[in-house]
Amino acid sequence: MTQTTPAAEPAALTGAPAQQRLPAWRLLAANPLTLASAIVLAVIVLLALLGPFISPYGINEIDVSRQLQPPSAAHWFGTDDLGRDILSRVLHAIGISLLIAVCAVTFAFLVGVAFGTVAGYAGGIVDMVISRVTDVLFAFPVLLLALAIVAIFQPGLVTTVVAIGIVYTPIFARIARGSALSVRSSPFVQVSQTMGTPARTILLRHVLPNITGPLIVQTSLSLAFAILSEAALSFLGLGIQPPTPSLGGMLFAAQGFLAQAWWMSVFPGVTILVTALAFNLIGDGLRDVLDPRQRSLIEARRSR
Amino acid sequence: MRISPAPVLRFLGLRLLSSAIVLLGVIVVVFALVHLVPGDPVRLALGTRYSPEAYQALREASGLDRPLLVQFFSYVGNALTGNLGVSFRNGGTVTDILLGRLPATVSLALVGIVIALVIALPAGIWSALREGRVSDIIVRLTSQLGVSVPDFWLGMLLITLFSSVLRVLPSSGYAPAGEDPLGWLQHVILPGLTVGLIAGAIMTRYIRAAVVDVAGAGFVRTAVSKGLPGRIVTFRHILRNALVPVLTIAGIQLATILGGVIVVEVVFAWPGLGRLVYDSVAARDYPVIQGAILLIAAMFLLINLIVDVLYALVDPRIRLA
Amino acid sequence: MNRRIPLLATAAAVALALAGCTTGTGVDLGGSSSGATFVAAIGGEPDQLDPHKTSSYFSFEVLENVFDTLVQPDDQLQMEPALATSWETSDDQLTWTFHLRDDVTFQDGSAFTAADVVYSYERIIDENLSNAWKFSSVASVTASDDTTVVITLTQPTPNLLSNLGGFKGMAIVQKKNVEDGDIATAPIGTGPYQLTEYVAGDHITLTANPDYWGGAPKIETIEYKFISEPATALAALKSGEIQWTDVVPPQQVDSLEDDSSISVGVTPSSDYWYLALNEAKAPWNDVKVRQAIAYAIDRTAIIQAVSYGTAQANQLAIPEASAWYTEYDTYPQTADLDTAKQLLAEAGYTGGTLDMLATSDYPETVTAAQIIASNLEPLGITVNIRQPDFSTWLDEQNSGNFDMLMMGWLGNIDPDDFYYAQHHTDGSSNAQKYSNAEVDAFLDAGRVETDQDKRKDDYAQAAKIIADEASYIYLYNPAVIQIWSPKLEGYEARADRAIRFKDASLAK
Which of A143, A242, B155, C487 has a CA between 20 and 30 Å from the CA of residue A156? Predict the structure, then answer.
């Protein structure tokens, strides 16, 4: 089952990507959409970093007497069912969302690329075992896998990171394997092998640099989906635990008040949307430049 | 496009074998997971006030007192003969319970995929044929928006709009199509729209890419240079050849929705497979969890297999190996 | 019915029901009826309809109208005759003789006799079903003739009646129905309504039992629909699609009461919610630390946030409406930080973390936990909230893996139900590991005391010590909230959440 999504098989990467990478950022900046997304993302990151300092109220300042107030000058995003300021909570939650997304994708990247590269380069039994395990993980519904992992360990920040990380690991593993496979058979690696260069050196020096293109793209896209996954987990009560604010958790609370307090669901939702959109658009821009054929895997896996 | 049957059969055989191995792996993982997850189905079924004897009696009745390995092998043995066991919660067979969820699951999947195709086909093709123009950028941006929106939030927005404000559609629940066709339609619209809009956004992007791909291929350029009219080129050459990737992505999206879109099903109280798994996890109903995930994985593998075979049969560039 | 069951009437929109799942395939017993159909919306689907095996409230909302018990709670939750018309006890209080009605038939036409009572009780006892503990003092159940059942006991049991009739989990079932394996989907009882159709995932239909011993009910057909979303249920009621529902968020009670097109029933229930600190762990084993927390929490804010003022504040378990109610108001309704700080200083506690176990299946615990976290912050206590699902919650509670937890007990009737299992040193539900010899003595005495006044006093004494020493920090009795169409007459919301339609009628 190496061809889950046929379009996802990477185009053969022959030995030329080095000169292609050089002008990448310039190409990126030339795309107005990508540039705009990068700016939006920068603003989001800045808000996340400054969140704790610029929020007008404490994130857990509970005052039941001012519950469910619509947006006003005092509370730009209104208040929730416990009278907390939604703007302050959103500002705080962005940072946590980003932190989880970045950590989870880093985890998936490191583990996935390590296993995938080894599988693709070593071939044989190693490849078979790793590929089958990847297949099994793929056949599993994403959210269920995350749900089970969270249930086994205690819900919380670290567990959420690990759960999302594990879910996205097979994607990186498969891309890395496919790319490593094609790089392995390329002339310059074969020449290196005949010259007696140790496998580790070949992996680090030749194989990895040549698969960075698709991986960078995948990283950006994965960040978008990691944000969505974290929101879904927290929505189900399995991600970030209250009273720590999380965008998904705020949406869960908002469910009981859809008709009475639209602001409880709209502001956290828009925040998730804008953040994920920024990552997706940047990923899109990167893909146009770095790797035109690589989007399918992760999209096929969303929302399962 | 002519392929002799032998490699096809060999390919099929290998793929089936590989799928069987993966399914076995899924069973092992699910079995391990359900037993690793804390929470005791017996205790949950009894409430909190019961005697130790009552606990022991129910444990034995559920077969949970046996060693784990024995439980595992008896499960796999039974599963091979099509016996997926009996629910801890109500004593119904897992097969019946899964079958009971199929109408809702299939309804949502079909409605979702139809909505998605209605959106994605025209939008994807139109956008591809106008690559780089403003309309293309608008389609790409909109589809990107659909890919980035949290599905449950989209569901909540639709509920707010159609149920709370306009009061024209029910916000949750399900009605069987056979008994109450109008009720079925009213109930399926909002979850179908939620799933369909997102699947549609994803598919638009695929279809656009596929059409762009084909439009740049040699034979299309030949056709154009031969002076064939644009519409004929579009329909006879480009779309026909873009059909396979379109089928592929439609298949994968179908598998995804059939496998249960948990959060959407939770938001809309939709009695599909995803909600079944979710509820069964809450009740620690091991046989149902295992059966449902097995079914989901099997559907996923089957649709993938069909898509791959289709792909291989239609596209001579893919070799069967 | 001394157990926790999903209480979705007060839950937020997502019904994370422990019971909400399809039960097998549809069952159609035929017998469709004409006349006005009355539609009731409940928050989720029953897991199964075997009254002896289910623990889901959704099941009992249906089964209440299908089955009977020997005795049953009246409006004041005192036991009144049902299948048994009268009973007497021997002088040593160890033999109870019940005289049964002789005009009762099961809904399939077969006669109801004392043998059915013996069969039902022996089924619970012999198969060790979850309610077997209610028979813990029962030595034997025998039928001396067709209309007489004799129960012999190993010790006097003044609350035997509420054990036998407190809820339909102690229903009299039919042997044939059980042995056919039909009871889980097509139960047959002696009650006012007969189950005639069950379409899994969609609805359950009950039809009036014309031969009911209490007289044929006026409403011909009741259809139960499963709606977990309050907004949907409300819209359906307003449009006339349904005539009754308990899927009502408390925050809407105020506005609904002004709406003349809807009848609202808000009744204080005999449920209660509490906090418990793990006394197996320091510093919570120190009574002063526990009291400090009882002083520091803002009960008014908690009640407002979880119930929008519909719940009744109570610093003990038993609600004001009950005959067993005891007055008690040691703790302030709003936070008294000075007293709390002083108590902590006396205990020598300088602050730390508190692992608070809530559960996402009961959203009120998560809401209250957040308020408590902010209440305890000034005391230097950092509250870490966990909200696993209820199954994991039970595990964590049982293994003592918590500092504080919040939970509710539902459907209690007898004071023994309220206090013994929870606070006796050997109590089966004493997860907080409370132990006080004086309390044990009162609770043991109450179990066998046959003088009502003395018995009440035993429990009052025990309850005061329990609250003084903060074994439980009692918070409130939630309200039963139900809404129905004004056309529904003769129906009242009951404190024990039993949904009885037998005396109701539907105006044209």
Answer: B155
Report how far apart, in Å, the C-alpha atoms of C325 and of each of B291, C319, C497 are: 50, 6, 19
Same domain, C460 and C375: yes
Q: What does the alpha-carbon distance between residue C456 and residue A224 come to, in Å, rounded to a whole number?
A: 62
**H or E element: which one contains C342?**
helix C337-347
Q: Assess whether pLDDT exceeds 80 at residue A157.
A: yes
The token pair that represents A232 in the structure block: 């879904």
B46, B89, B176: residue with CB nearest C48? B89
Residue A265: closest CA among A93, A109, A86:
A86
- Asked whether residue C239 is assigned to any structural domain, the reply reads no
Residues C38, C86, single domain; the answer is: yes
Residues of B whose CB is below 8 A from C24: 90, 92-93, 96-97, 100
C278 shares a domain with C152: no
Q: Is the same domain home to C489 and C470?
A: no
Residues of chain B with pLDDT under 50: 1, 319-321
Is A248 in the C-facing interface, judged by CB distances under 8 Å?
A: no
Same domain for C105 and C187: yes
Number of domains chain C is built from: 2
Enumerate neighbours of A (3 or more CB pairs within 8 A): B, C
- The rounded distance, in Å, linking the Cα atoms of C287 and C469 is 6
Angle at B238 between CA B235 and CA B244, to 5 degrees: 105
Its domain, for residue C73, covers 5-216+482-506
Q: What is the pLDDT of residues C479-505, one digit of tens each?
A: 999 999 999 999 999 989 999 999 999
Strands C95-100 and C84-89: antiparallel
Count of Cβ atoms closer than 10 Å to residue C103 Cβ:
9
Six-digit token string for B80:
């091979």
pLDDT digit string, tens, across residues A36-75: 999 999 999 999 999 888 888 988 888 888 888 999 999 9
The CATH code of the domain that includes C304 is 3.10.105.10
Q: Helix, strand, coil: what percent of chain A each, to 5?
A: 75, 0, 25
Angle of helix B181-215 versus helix B240-258 axis, rounded to 10: 140
| Three-point CA angle C234, C239, C240, nearest 5° | 100
The answer to whether the Cβ–Cβ distance between B276 and C55 falls below 8 Å is no
pTM, full prediction:
0.80
Q: What are the angstrom distances between the C-alpha of A221 and each of A29, A144, A280, A290, B155?
A: 18, 21, 5, 13, 23
Contact C406, C393 (CB under 8 A): no
Asked if residue C178 is part of any domain, the answer here is: yes
Across the strands, what pairs with C79?
A: C73
The answer to whether the Cβ–Cβ distance between A237 and C360 falls below 8 Å is yes
Classify residue C69: in a domain, yes or no: yes
Q: Which residue of C has its CA nearest to A245?
A: C370
Query: For B47, which DSSP code?
Result: -
Of A151, A155, A259, the CB nearest to C231: A259
- The DSSP H or E segment spanning C276 is strand C272-277
Q: What Å distances lie between residue C235 and A74, B112, C41, CA to CA? A: 34, 26, 12
Q: Answer yes or no: do A273 and B308 touch at CB < 8 A.
A: no
Do residue C106 and residue C180 come from a single domain? yes
Map out the domains of chain A with their CATH numbers. Answer: 58-303 (1.10.3720.10)
DSSP alpha helix (H) spans, C109-229? 114-126, 160-165, 175-179
Pairwise CB contact (< 8 Å): A82 & C371: yes
- Write out the residue range of the structural domain in which residue B191 sits: 1-321
Query: pLDDT tens digits, residue range C18-68?
Result: 223 323 333 333 333 334 689 999 988 888 899 998 888 899 999 999 999
Question: Distance (Å, rounded) from C-alpha A18 to C-alpha B288?
Answer: 52
Whether residue B249 and residue A296 make contact (CB cut-off 8 A), yes or no, is yes
